[in-house]
Specification:
There is one protein chain. With 197 residues, the chain is of the alpha/beta class. It has helices at residues 14-23, 31-38, 44-53, 66-73, 77-104, 136-147, 151-158, 164-167, 181-195; strands at residues 2-7, 28-30, 109-113, 128-133, 173-176. It has a 5-stranded parallel beta sheet, sandwiched between helices. Helix 2 crosses helix 5 and helix 3 (44-53) packs antiparallel against helix 5. The N and C termini lie close together (11 Å).
């Protein structure tokens, strides 16, 4: 099975590409969903996060409030490193489990949607890497609508990511998410064709 890294900066449209791939019948594993699974209430990472950052990161139901945690860590590099040291090992473990499961089911291609692929030095884990890029103004608008973030919050979170230009020469395929849905779908179709899907 080919294990394909799907990456792109916040608001670039990775999720839209992932949905198209799913509609074409390909499995897509999301690092963000694995991270949510890793920090579920009363799990080992949950307790470590509460010990590290305090109960102010909890929502009224006792789950991790991702927005409150993001506001805490994205303005403080040391706290961001603390968060990653707690969550990333568990996410890697979960992603290995998913990959093995998909391989045992006989899939020829599977995609792993991981935003910080290059920033975390994960490129060696993939057979092929796809980058989704989008104009900055569109990214900001998507993040405002999707997450309710201010431009200042968005730029603070972007500081943890490399600029897209730094990533383009390190990938096998670039998807430009700057047109309509049909244009995006056509590029995904061409990607799958090139991968032999």
């Amino acid at each position: 099975m080919k294990w394909i890294g799907l990456t792109g900066n916040m608001g670039s449209g990775k999720s839209a590409v992932g949905e198209i791939l799913k509609n074409f019948g390909y499995p897509v594993v999301s690092a963000d969903l694995l991270a949510r699974e890793a920090v579920k209430r009363q799990g080992p990472a949950w307790q470590k996060l509460v010990d590290c950052f305090g109960e102010g990161i909890l929502s009224p139901d006792g789950e991790i409030d991702r927005r409150a945690l993001g506001d805490t860590v994205f303005s403080n590099p040391k706290k961001l490193k603390d968060l990653e040291a707690i969550v990333h090992p568990r996410v890697r473990e979960l992603s290995r489990d998913r990959r093995q499961s998909l391989e045992s089911q006989g899939h020829r291609l599977a995609f792993y949607d991981v935003p910080l692929l290059f920033e975390k030095g994960l490129e060696g884990e993939f057979d092929f890497i796809v980058l989704v890029v989008s104009p900055e103004a569109q990214q900001i608008e998507r993040l405002r609508l999707r997450d309710g973030l201010t431009e200042a919050q968005i730029r603070s979170r972007w500081s943890a990511q490399w600029p897209a230009e730094k990533k383009t020469d390190k990938v096998g395929f670039v998807i430009k998410n700057d047109g309509d849905f049909n244009y995006l779908e056509a590029q995904v179709r061409e990607l799958v064709r090139q991968l032999g899907g």
